[in-house]
Amino acid sequence: MFESHHHLLDMAHKTPENEMDLIRDDEYESKSGTDIMEAPSGDDQDPNQRPNKKKRYHRHTQHQIQEMESFFKECPHPDDKQRKELGRRLGLEPLQVKFWFQNKRTQMKAQHERHENTQLRTENEKLRAENIRYKEALSNATCPNCGGPAAIGEMSFDEQHLRIENARLREEIDRISGIAAKYVGKPMLSYPHLPTGASRSLDLGVGNFAPQTGMTGEIYGAADLLRSVSGPTDADKPMIIELAVAAMEELIRMAQSGEPLWIPSTDNSAETLSEEEYVRTFPRGIGPKPLGMKSEASRESAVVIMNHINLVEILMDVNQWSSVFSSIVSRAMTLEVLSTGVAGNYNGALQVMTAEFQVPSPLVPTRENYFVRYCKQHGDGTWAVVDVSLDNLRPSSISRCRRRPSGCLIQELPNGYSKVTWIEHVEVDDRAVHSIYKPLVNSGLAFGARRWVATLDRQCERLASVLANNISAGDVGVISSPEGRKSMLKLAERMVMSFCTGVGASTAHTWTTLSGSGADDVRVMTRKSMDDPGRPPGIVLSAATSFWLPVPPKRVFDFLRDENSRSEWDILSNGGLVQEMAHIANGRDPGNSVSLLRVNSANSSQSNMLILQESCTDSTGSYVIYAPVDIVAMNVVLSGGDPDYVALLPSGFAILPDGPNDQSGGIPEVGSGGSLLTVAFQILVDSVPTAKLSLGSVATVNSLIKCTVERIKGAVLCDGA
Question: What share of the chain in percent tops pLDDT 70?
């Protein structure tokens, strides 16, 4: 039968105007049957039948065709008995039935091949268009060393093309491996990353064709840094699984135990882990505490407005995790997925990751961890996600921080809420932390469980506000259209992530201190922005400084977020009147909101400026982040357009308490002592990416930030007096 199929197909190819020798599409209904068409071959050969010399058509009736069509749908390969029965019922010879089915199968195969050809042709057109696009991009090739136009010989067309292709394929492998792992249930393959000799500027150009996986898009050059950490070897995997299972057991007991493991403070507002009891309870684990490191352990619970399934997905998807916790996670990457879980969810999922945790200030070094993350479903709608360090698998690396079993227990509650119990337990060498941040770091507020839970709670409220549809259109400036709200919140989210990844002491970028070594010295860094639709092209100068204020954080936050007091510190608004044009509340606290501000210039010859601003606050810190935006682009966003092409250069403030306070940490009055304020600006100093940075630009930005700091100090200290 297969030979017969091939024979008929060969005939079809030889006569392009016919699909098959005897049956044409347009004649199929009336001429689909034949008495004898060809000498059959293979298992279709009838030894008693001699082939007729003369081919003749035999018209089947409409009834016969319909009956055979419906039978074909059920059984395309009838046996002798079925053919005889069908022939008897329809008044046809069994051989006629046999050839009708044979021709029908051939025709179906031809139709299928034609459909496949059409698909391939479409795919081919897409690839051709992509190829043309690449050629156009490559015609503007830049030198990897200086950023200038590449002369012939500096970089061949093939080399540039291979770099772009390499980046595109790397993304494709990530995507396909993920899909394969999901559907086949096998672990994702880790693949060697080819070393690249490209400088940051070239990485930037390539990065536009393949966005970096699992990292916030701001970090230039960070991809290679994180990729230098390879996944585990096959020999290590059984040990990793054993470690993860033990860590899960430890996390559950840590989350559920009371005294003597956790010792409450006198007023029950906090609790401390008893190290002696911990060692006695968990003698195994990742070994004794290394010399020079100190323990930090904290536990915090909260009820959040998100169901347990979405919470688990956020924790197990590195992109969502980096986005939701962008103020804490400066960059993260999944190196290898050892298990994707079972039954279509994350139960049993196991992945090896690397991440960098930060405080929003250049004065606090980041903490880098190489760890395994394990997710498990326990009974009664309870899930747990645990991290534990794998530094003992990397004997060559000296780690300044390692994670003992840390993570969270998630309990399902009615109406889409969840109760989250978070454990943070690390050993760290924090001697490099600046003295003004030491009390905050030592209290556990900087990296502890309370900060994770407070951030999660605030972000869950923010996500709930994106989905809210009961918005009153009566209030002035409130955006009531769901599409406009969604686009504006998405743009604000990108702005916040951009600010957070650029303000800390991440090893992905290097700060240069302009003078001395005092706490409030200005630190600067530069980077080239090229071919990125989300930021203006040119040389961007970032400057940041952190300092202490003897004023409660809430007062500083309220002063900085209020558009009416903006002219007191914002030098770039030139004393113009600031009006709020649009407003989206995204949390219980009135301080959690996204605003669109208009600066009405005092000088009538200057055009008005629009500013997008997001302010957010919780018990562990507050942010006011803003960026000038184009009026035309914002109109597109407000009508629900794509916000990814709005160019942003965010600046802003991070306000932290200067240490633990006597209050239990309610949102209305965050902190009772002083504040630690970080001011960070991003200025486009030259719109040509290849230009050299002038010292004059650095001096201008330095004086701008220092003048802003003096104005803020003067205003809030005067208010507080």
Answer: 70
